[in-house]
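Session log. Operator J.P. requested a structure for one protein chain; no other inputs attached. Running the standard single-chain path with token output.
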Amino acid sequence: MSKIARAAAMGLTALLAAPTLQASGLPGFSLAAETSRISFYSRDNRKVDAARTEAYLSRVEDLLGCKLEGRAEYYRYGSPEEIAAGTGTYAQGLTFPKTGQIHSTEEFHAHEIVHLVAGQLGNPGLFFQEGLAVALGNEGKWRGQRVDKIAKARVRGWRLSTLVSRFDRLDAETAYPLAGSFVGRLIAAHGASKVAAFFRAAGSSPANTEAAFVRTFGESLDDAGAKWMASL
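Structure written below.
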């Protein structure tokens, strides 16, 4: 696919393609604010929280040991329908890390800021991309519930390798909390910097995910998954 993306209520990531920008931003948007590294564009004078976004970007960079390359652009929309009209993907949030663009219906979108930074590390696949964004950006919650609680009710009978390979075919209400729970446990056990090292080891292709996971954490996906499931 030319664009790796998954629609979900809380956001998604796209790594390979992005809309072509004009020097002044996308048509229909006006410059709403600027920080040292981010230009914020808005439709219909909708608010953006520039200071909070810049501060959270720095926090994620420190956690993952990865600095954003160049400037970023944050586009504030009024609805998922507007994002679909502008990008071709229906979502409340959509990030293009390669070109440094966030498209969001929110004035501050932590989930998508995580994607912006993590997308520069590597691509171990949607399960880990979204799991990291849920664990950090959503603070381990989904629809107001702890993801571990949701995972405990829904994960039995799955193998982690199956969850990883079928992520884009699962219902978002199952896929995202399960991914967030597992990646959250990885962070708790090994630290965010080790998870970032795994993203780097995976490189640009999810085909390397299993081998990169073994090299980084010293066990297979399914062995790690069995321990996670047993701990829920």
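Operator note: The chain has two domains: 12-118, 126-231.
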